[in-house]
Structures are given as C-alpha cells and as structure tokens.
Specification:
- The chain has 342 residues and is of the alpha/beta class.
- Helix content is 52%, strand content 13%.
- It is built from ten helices and eight strands.
- The radius of gyration is 34 Å and the shape is flat.
Length: 342
C-alpha cells in the first residue's frame, strides 16, 4: 500500500524536497521555480495542518477537564446544601451484613456517627432490606446505636423494614427507638444457623482417602471430609445456643415490654409485618416517607451512607458502557429474567 503523506507529514516533506532537488538538477529554470512554489506551499499546508491538529487535541482535553471540574464542584455544592437545611437522615442497611459487603459495621457505624453529629438532621431512619448476616457485625452496629442514643436523647432513631428485616438485620432494628414495616414485610427469624456438607460416604465409594494433620484435638471438627463426632457436635451446638441466647437478650433489652409472651417468638420463624405488629416485634406499619412525614415532621430525606467519589462513578459508568458494548457485539444482550435463590 502506498504511503499517505498526510498521515506522515515529515516523511512527505522529505520526499518532496528530494524530488525538488532532482528536478532542479534536470529541468529548466521556469519548471524548477514552479515546482518549488508547489512543494513549498505543500510543506506550509502540512505544517499548518499539524498545528491545527495539536490545537484541537488540546481543546478536547481542556473541555473534558472542565466538565470534570464542574461535576466535582456541583457534587460538593449539592451535598453541602442538602445537609445545611433541616432534614431526616437516612442510613441504608442493604443486603447481607458482613465485613466485606456494603452493609458492614464500618460503613453503618460511620454513617450513624455522622448523622447524630449533624445538627440539621432532626432524626435518623435506619432503612433495612436485609436477610441478616454476621452476628459480630450486627452486634457492633447494635452497640453503637445504643451508645449514640444515650449520648443524643433528643434525636430519635427509627428502623424501617422494607422487603425483609430478618435475623441479624432484626438484631440491629431492635436497638432503635421504634420499628416500622410494611404489612407484607418479612420480620423476625430470631435464631442462629450454621450449615455444611459431609462427603465421607462419597469419598469411600470413590476410593479416596482423606489425610489431615492437626495440632489440637478438635481443630478439624468442621472438616466435611471427616466423619462427624457426637461430642464435637454437642460442643458446636453449645456455641450456637450461646449466640442465640445473646441474640434473645439484646432483642429483649431493645424491645422491652412491647414483646408479647409468645413461645414461637425466638424459634427462628419469620412473620409478615402485620403479624409482627401483633407480636410486638414492630411498633407500626409504614414506610420511610411515612415516618419522616408523620412522625418526625421533616419530609426531606438525606442519604448518609458513604458515597463513591465522582471520578469513581465516572469510571464505573465507563466500565458499564464498555461491558454493554461488548455484550452487544458478541450477541449477549438478550433480556433474561432474573432468578434469585436464597
């Protein structure tokens, strides 16, 4: 393929000058002067095109940086103005409660402290949509809610359960002044679970021998490839019973005399919001907006959970756009109904 002199101006200029020298040596004076003007004009145009190319590239980068700066300034101004007016603070407890997920004790405790410290936040709503999770993470959050409420008795904290507030999520809710839920919300599951699998018979059929070495008599008692031991099973059950007892005690402390004396209350069962109200697990039926409007008296809601930096949002959006483009290119953009297994 022939070289494109417009793609490589330096190479084009050199070749033109070489051609000019050849013509100068072989041709007449008039022809030489004519070609010299043409080649000289071509060289000037190439230099001019290169300068304009650099200019437009710089202009594009300047425009992009200006957009980013405006985005940062607008985000800061929006955040500051939202928190300066009187509002109701919202803290989300979404998904599993664990140290590695969004609903971690670090995130929620940080948000709680910020909300209780903010003078413009008249009250705090803990908006819960979680099946539970780590009893340790839930315990951290429960204890911090109790501490902050004791330090700030004038600022009430409400827990509002949307789809589900079960197990560790209800553990957290029990620390609130009051709990609200929808009539169809799933509430409760005050119990503890631990599960696993045993592959001893399968390994025997496959002719696989398990070899495990430990220092400590019971170090490998949860190994799924070793046969269960009755004494170790009883020890593990004691651990679960102790954790369950701690859970029950904290719920009783948080709910007090509002709890009904029902033998099914702490069996791990789950109830609708309507049933939970009758059992004293919640104080009323309503959404976050209802609680903010009717009970707190300040309808404006401000999210206090940690927010990603603007540049992180931009990178995430670019990543999503790229992924969508790749999916479309390889024919994987057909709609699929979501399936949830829990």
């Amino acid at each position: 393929m022939a070289d494109n002199h417009w793609d490589n101006p330096e190479k084009g200029s050199d070749e033109a000058l070489q051609a000019l020298d050849k013509v100068r040596a072989e041709g007449s004076g008039r022809e030489w002067r004519l070609l010299e003007k043409i080649v000289g004009g071509l060289h000037v145009e190439q230099r001019r095109a290169r300068r304009w190319g650099i200019f437009f590239k710089l202009l594009t980068f300047t425009y992009l940086f200006a957009l980013l700066a405006l985005f940062f300034i607008k985000s800061d101004m929006t955040s500051d103005s939202a928190e300066s007016a009187e509002h109701t603070a919202i803290i989300e407890v979404l998904g599993p409660i664990s140290a590695k997920d969004e609903a971690s004790a670090d995130n929620i405790v940080w948000s709680l402290r910020r909300a209780f410290k903010e003078p413009s936040a008249k009250a705090v709503i803990l908006r819960i949509n979680s099946p539970g999770g780590s009893p340790v993470q839930s315990g951290y959050i429960y204890d911090e809610i109790k501490r902050l409420r004791a330090l700030n008795p004038e600022k009430k904290l409400y827990a509002v359960i949307s789809d589900i507030g079960a197990s560790g999520a209800y553990y957290i809710a029990a620390a609130a002044d009051e709990i609200y839920a929808d009539k169809a919300s799933l509430v409760g599951s005050i119990g503890v679970t631990a599960s696993g699998f045993g592959f001893v018979d399968l390994m025997s059929k496959l002719g696989v021998e398990r070899r495990i070495y430990t220092a400590g008599e019971h170090k490998a008692f949860l190994d799924p490839f070793s046969p269960s031991d009755d004494r170790e099973s009883r020890l593990w059950q004691e651990v679960l019973n102790t954790t369950h007892r701690q859970f029950i005690e904290q719920v009783r402390v948080g709910r007090g005399e509002r709890l009904k004396n029902d033998p099914k209350l702490f069996t791990g069962l789950v109830w609708t919001g309507e049933q939970a109200l009758e059992m004293g697990l919640i104080d009323g039926l309503g959404s976050s907006s209802y609680v903010a409007r009717e009970l707190i008296g300040v309808e404006k809601l401000v999210d206090y959970m940690p927010q990603p930096k603007p540049w992180e949002e931009i990178i995430d959006q670019l990543g999503v756009s790229f992924a969508k483009g790749m999916a479309t290119a390889i024919g994987m953009d057909a709609g699929v109904s979501p399936v949830n297994l829990r």
